[in-house]
C-alpha cells in the first residue's frame, strides 16, 4: 500500500510503498479514503514532539470503508463507512489518561495510508448525515473540543464563551459546539478575516490579538466570560484571568505561544477561578460527542483537501496558519 512517510524530523515527506496490514483477531481493516491533518502531525515533522522521531506514518484522523475484520469481530462491519478514534488505551480513570495512553500516528502507523488495521473498540460508524470527507475532519479535533467544553468546563446553555485563536480545527469545533448550545461566543485571532469568518458562523464578535490592548477592547465589547477555551498559553495567559468572570473557567489544551508567565496567584484565588487542563478524550467522550453531533446535525468546517501526493503542501499550509478549518488528505479518490 501507499503511505505518506516521514523519514525523520525536518525531512521532506515521501510517498512510499509498504506491506498491507493484516487485521488481528480484535481488529478491523479500513480502506482509508480521507485523513485529517492535525498540529500534532506538523510538530512531529518539525521535530517538536515527544516519542518516536523517525520512520513514521503519521495521521490520527481517518475515514473509510471496512474491508476485512479479525476473527473476533462481527462480520457485519464489512462494507460499513467508518471513522476512527485516535486516543487509545486511555485507562480506567475517566478524569485523566493513564501511563499506557497513546495516540494513533506515533508510534504505531497512522491514517496517512491506504489501509489501517485498528482495534474494533476505536472504530465508529459514520452518522448517516455525514459523508466520508466530513467524517475524516471530526475525530481528534472534535473530541478535544467536546471534552474541553462539556466534560471539563461543564458548559451550560446561555453562558458567555471566549475561543482564543480561532481558525484551526479544534477551536472551530469549540465555536460550533458552544453556539449549538445557545451560548454567546466571542473569538480572538491574529487575522481579521478569520474573525469575520467566525462571525459568519455565529460568533457575536472578536478581536485581533496582535492589536495593542486587545483584551481591553474585548472586555469593552463583551464584558467578562464564563468559559474561556485556550490552546496557546504564553505570556498573555494572564489577560485571560482578567477576562474571566468570578467563578469562571479557563480550559487549556495547548501551548503554541510558549510558557505561561506573569501570573498573579491572588487574582486566581480571589476570583475563585477554575483553571483546567485537558487533552483528547476517552471513549465515553467520543460517544457523547457523536451523540451531540447527531442531535445538532453539525458539519465540520473543511479548509482544503489535498491529494495524498501533495501532503507536503498541506503541511506548509498549516505551518503558515493559512487554514480556516480542517486540512484533509484524499487518500483514495
What is this structure's SSE topology?
Elements: E1 2-6, E2 14-17, E3 27-36, H1 39-45, E4 56-57, E5 61-69, E6 81-84, E7 87-88, E8 102-103, E9 115-119, E10 123-125, H2 132-136, H3 139-152, E11 160-163, H4 169-180, E12 184-189, H5 192-201, E13 205-208, H6 214-222, E14 225-230, H7 237-243, E15 244-252, H8 265-270, E16 274-277, H9 283-296, E17 302-307, H10 311-319, E18 326-330
Helix pairs in contact: 3-4, 3-9
Description:
Strands 3, 5, 6, 9, 10, 17 and 18 form a 7-stranded mixed sheet that branches. The chain has a 6-stranded parallel sheet with strand order 13-12-11-14-15-16, with helices on both faces. It is globular, with a radius of gyration of 20 Å. By secondary structure, the protein is an alpha/beta fold. Helix 3 crosses helix 9 (283-296). Strand 14 (225-230), helix 7 (237-243) and strand 15 form a beta-alpha-beta unit. The chain folds into 2 domains: 2-138 and 300-330, Alpha-Beta Complex (Quinone Oxidoreductase, Chain A, domain 1); 143-277, Rossmann fold (3-Layer(aba) Sandwich). The protein has 10 helices and 18 strands. It has helices at 39-45, 132-136, 139-152, 169-180, 192-201, 214-222, 237-243, 265-270, 283-296, 311-319; strands at residues 2-6, 14-17, 27-36, 56-57, 61-69, 81-84, 87-88, 102-103, 115-119, 123-125, 160-163, 184-189, 205-208, 225-230, 244-252, 274-277, 302-307, 326-330. The longest helix is centred in the middle third of the chain and has 14 residues, at 139-152. It starts with a strand and ends with a strand. The mean pLDDT is 96.
